[in-house]
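Q: Hi! First time doing this. I have a protein sequence and I read that you can turn it into a structure. Is that right? Here it is:
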Amino acid sequence: MKMIKEISKEISLIENIDDKIQLLNEVRFELHKVSPLKHHPVDCVFWEKSTKVESNDYNPNAVAPPEMELLRRSIIEDGYTMPIVAFDDKGLNGEDDLTIKIVDGFHRRLSERTTPEISSSTFGHVPLSKIRTKKAHTSDRMASTIRHNRARGTHSIELMSTIVAELVEMGKGDPWICKHIGMSRDELLRLKQITGLAALFQNSDFTSSWIPEPKPENIEE
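A: Yes, that's right. Below is the predicted 3D structure, encoded as structure tokens:
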């Protein structure tokens, strides 16, 4: 406890903001090395200058203007509560050509780059967490981005139809799908109708669907 207080005191004496942030990052990196949870990227969240962080060119997620404004307002009011997920991308020159590429969190970085109030509050930095995989193939990065989008609950008709199609291929029936992805039976039926994919109707069991009653025989047209 005494050592921690001494380190905190030394850091507090540093006047230059960038130097202070960098030293705090280095302390976090060292603690991360001995952490029993170091296999989880979120165990080490650090701050990096946003100008050093680049977007990828394959993120399928799009944010509409109202949601984008809500994201900015959320960061202004509540601060950053989620780090941007990134990875070190080595160029043709190896470590000399190192760039930080975003896996998930492009719009959180965009908010800092386009909103002076946010940028001033972070001194031009964004919170990062480095993904643990060392695979260099673009397909691996794309898969990681899609997993993050899906896990966070990004919704679109195309995305939801893909998920439903995959579940159908796994042999899951309508009750299971509705229960586990939070859709009503009517919503699932409408999704299948909108997409027009015959394969999605496989294993359907909408036994409670409305069936029109037969017209009485003695009523004239």
